[in-house]
Write the C-alpha cells for this entry.
Amino acid sequence: MSFPAITLQPPVSGKPLSKQQKAFNTLVGKIHRARNRLQQWHDAMQRAAQAQAAQIDPKMRNLNAMRKELLLALDVMQADPGYNKTDHKRLRAMIEVLAHACLSIQHDADIEAILNRQRAPAREERESGMGDLFGFDEFSQAEAQDADAPEVDGFDAEADDSAGFHRRHQIDVEKRPRDAQTPSLRIIYRKLASALHPDRESDPEERARKTALLQRANQSYKNGDLLALLGLQLEIAMVDAAHLSSLADAQIKDYVRALKAQLADLEDEITLIEQDLRINMPFAASAGKLDPRAIDTLIEQELDALEMVEGELKSVLSRKAEVRFMKSWLREQERSSQALAEESWEEALAALEDFLAQELSPRRRRR
C-alpha cells in the first residue's frame, strides 16, 4: 500500500520553517520508514510461516520419530547385563530427556509409560537436561574396540537448541486498539465523513466510490492514522498542500501530537512482531538484533542445524547395538550436561557479583 507524501513548506518563499513544522516533517519521515519496515516484517513473517509449514515442521516430526526410536532402544538397554550401575543412571537420565522432548511435541502413551518407569536418583539429575541430546563426532569401529580410544566429542549445544523440542506456531499479530483520538483527528474525520457520505449521491458509481473512500476514512480514524486522513483530504481536493503549510502552529502542534502517537503505535507493532517471532519460532530466539531481511538466513541456519542433528541421530541409531560405543556416548552426554550446568552457574555467580558490586559501591554525590 502506498502512502501520500505530505511535507510542509514555508508559506512565504525564503521564510524558514517553524519549530512545529520541522517536527511535523521529521515525524512524517519516521512514520514512512516505520511503515516500510513493518511491511518488510509482514513479508518476512509470511515467508517464515511458509518455511515452517513446508520444511521445518516435517523435519521436526521426522526428528521426533528418531528420538522415539532411540528412546525405545535405550529402554531395552536397561535390561542388558553389559551395562553397569553407572551406565543405568545415564540411561535413565537420557531416557527422561528424550521422553520429555517427544512429549512436548505430541502425546504418546508408550513414551509416557516408559517415562513413568524411570526413577532418577536425584532431582538435579532429572533437571540437568543433558543438554546435548545426540551429539558426538564420528566414532570408528576400530576406536570402539580400543579400550583406550578417545571418548566421543560433545555435540554443540546451539545446534541442539536450534533443533528445539517445542511445537512452533504461525505468527498472527493483531493491531492493538488505540486510545482516544486527538481533536484534530476527530475534526478531519468528521469533515471527511460529511463530504463522503454516500447517501447524498444519486449516481450509483459515485455512491460506490464515496462508500469505498469513507471505509478508508473509517479505518484510518480507527487506527489513528493522521497521514492517511490528510492524504484523503488531498485526494478528494478538500484541501491542498498550500493550505496545510499555512496552518497555524497551534494546529500543527496538535498534528505533531497525533503523529507521535501514530509512530509509537507502529514501533510497538514492530516490537510485537519481533517478540512473537522469538517466542513462536525458536530458531530466532538466540539471534541478536532481528532484521526482517535476515529471516531467510535464519531459516537456512535452522534447516542446516536440523539436518546435522538428524545425521547424528542416524549415526547413533546405526550403532545402538555396540555396547562400548553406547557407553562412551552416554558418558560424553553426561559430561556435556555437567559442563553446561557449571558454565551457567558460573555466569549466574558473575552476574550476581556484578550486581552486588554496583549496589554496594559508594554512590556518586550529585554536585
